[in-house]
Amino acid sequence: MDLKRTDFPPGFLFGAATSSYQIEGHGFGGAGPTHWDTFAATPGNVVRGENGARACDHYHRFDEDLDLAAGMGLDAYRFSTSWARVLPEGRGTPNPDGLDFYDRLVDAMLARGLKPYATLYHWELPSALADLGGWRNRDIADWFADFATVLMRRIGDRVYAAAPINEPWCVAWLSHFLGLHAPGMRDIRAAARAMHHVGLAHGRAIQAMRALGMRNLGCVTNHEYTMPADDTPEAAAAAKLYDGIYNRWFLGAMRNAEYPTDVLELLAPHMPAGWQNDMAVIAEPVDWLGINYYTRKLIARGPSGLPGDFRELTAGLPTTSMGWEIVPEGLHYFLTWIDREYAHGLPIYVTENGMSADAPPDRPADDPERIGYLDRHLAQVRHAIADGADVRGYFIWSLLDNYEWALGYDKRFGLVHVDFETLERTPKASYYALQTALAR
Ligand code: IFM
After folding, report:
1. Sorting pLDDT into bands at 50, 70 and 90, what band is 2?
2. Where are the domains of the chain?
3. Which atom of ligand 1 is nearest to the CA of 354?
């Protein structure tokens, strides 16, 4: 790996990211059922019907996992908290074991010198709230703020930074329009409502955490570098709308208190009444912006010709084992564009970047492609900083191989290999490459 710590400004943070349902083992510790458990139990949704009941058993092995994170020389650890572990019914009586778990987890990070970066919600909605309409129900904003209060009353004094929701696009569009994640809906009215309520819940949770005196609060959005698949006006229009839904909707609302007009043309008929009155709450001030970046998309109009129906193409570039084209310059694009258009002086963190890679079965810790991927993306981070973007940190997805949602346990994003039979952890070559680079 070419990089060394001193290539980055003093204080630049290096971290790794994970999420609760993907690693903890949701079956342990009295967590309530979630919409991911039922989505996975419904045939056809998840490869082999796999779920997060055991995952990496981080619930019992977090000391070992945090030793690995600290042993790599990381400065920070980005984790998420399970709503259903803290409040098994989504509201009402907290689960004492759930609160104790996050309490111990945060202390364990601090004991190892890792700054805790908490995300309140990374996709496992309590089933009791899904039964009430989940993200389609406006009340979710208040339920979520109450969850934020219950949890952060316990750990908020020690988390270094917090963000309410990971990747609002996935929570809303991927899950309610494309139907590829829980709750697996394909309905434009459901999607429009989720697109709005996710932002409202974000704003209400920021207010709730501020009321507890917390600082260093942010938002985390995911982005795909979008281009038309060909020179036709249809492809240009499709790519523009895709970019609006994916890249401009949430940042527009959270940072500028407005939705992009091109996307509103599509969604306005399906939005909840009075949505305009919520924009100030959605745009509640934050202290930093987090961006998750993995790939680009070449977009053409979909077969139905309806707006919102897209075809996604590739152009033969090298891909990860997810089939995602590797386009590091997209990271530079987003860091500089977001710095210009949405940051308004706030620092930016790359809160997720990384790749899934298959390794030969007899050498599961061999991952030269990941070393190359990280090197090339970190070079783009440096380039963006040189171009004036205020980037303060970089988190690799992910510390461990884990549950990759609808793709089950096949896709391996970890710096550390996990044997899902024995649960043995083995640092990969990329782990050691980073360890060396960060010590330089
Ligand atoms: O595994 C996911 C994570 O949950 C959210 N961001 C993208 C990752 C890779 O798909």
Report:
1. confident
2. 5-437
3. 9
